[in-house]
Amino acid sequence: MLSYIISWFVPRKPQYNAAGVLFTNGTHVLAGYQPNKKKPCITGIGGSRESFETFLQTALRETVEELLHVKEVPSQLICNLSDSLKPLSVFSNKNYVTVLYSFEQLETFLEILKENGITTDLYKEFPLSLEELVFKRKNSKEVEIKQFAVLPLECSQISKEFLKDLQMALEICTMGI
Fold first, then answer.
1. Which residues of 73-95 are buried (b: 16+ CB within 10 A; e: fewer)?
2. pTM of the predicted structure, to 2 decimals
3. 15, 46, 112, 132: least buried by Cβ within 10 Å?
4. What domain range includes position 128?
């Protein structure tokens, strides 16, 4: 059934430019804050495809890079991940393909990375859970995604008032409370 969904909703290789992964439990999703974009924002996890990649290879590579700030992702690791994790669904929005996995699969994803010798300087100890991934990440100016957040799946906008509250809290926190 999944192969049918993939072939029906996902553009062929030359038609897509980027791909990513969305981890969810059905009510919440993992998102990342990207402060270095022209307009800083909260985004999903993913990025541009390299010429030789399938959409799944792009999505998995970008996820490894952005979760742990890994510069070179071994191709064998991508094979291990794609063999071990079966997407819940795959869909596309114009030229971007999204691969949907569960939060439980995120933990399996992290375990596979650790078992394959992937290391990161963003965590004191290698993260193996959603909680560790979100709350134990060190701040770094060199990363694409500075911090992760768990957001409601059903959310179309953030109120201006709440954004102002966030700005005030940031100012207070940077003063060292």
1. beeebbebbbeebebeebbbeee
2. 0.86
3. 15
4. 2-174
Query: Rounded to an integer, what distance in angstroms lies between the CA atom of residue 123 and that of residue 137?
Result: 5
Q: Are the C-beta atoms of residues 74 and 65 closer than 8 Å to each other?
A: no
Closest-CA residue to 21 (of 68, 75, 73, 67): 67
SS3 of residue 42 by DSSP: strand
Contact assessment for residue 169 and residue 157, using Cβ atoms and an 8 Å cutoff = no
Find residue 42's DSSP bridge partners.
33
Segments in the chain forming alpha helices (H): 2-9, 55-68, 75-84, 103-115, 130-135, 160-174
Whether the CB-CB separation of 68 and 104 falls below 8 Å is answered with no
For residues 33 and 139, the answer to whether their CB atoms sit within 8 Å is no
Interval 13-66: pLDDT, tens:
457 899 999 999 999 999 999 988 898 899 999 999 998 899 999 999 999 999
Residue 35's CATH number: 3.90.79
Query: Quick one: DSSP state of residue 14?
Result: G
The total of structural domains in the chain comes to 1
Q: Convert the pLDDT of each residue in 60-84 to its tens digit.
A: 999 999 999 999 999 999 999 999 9
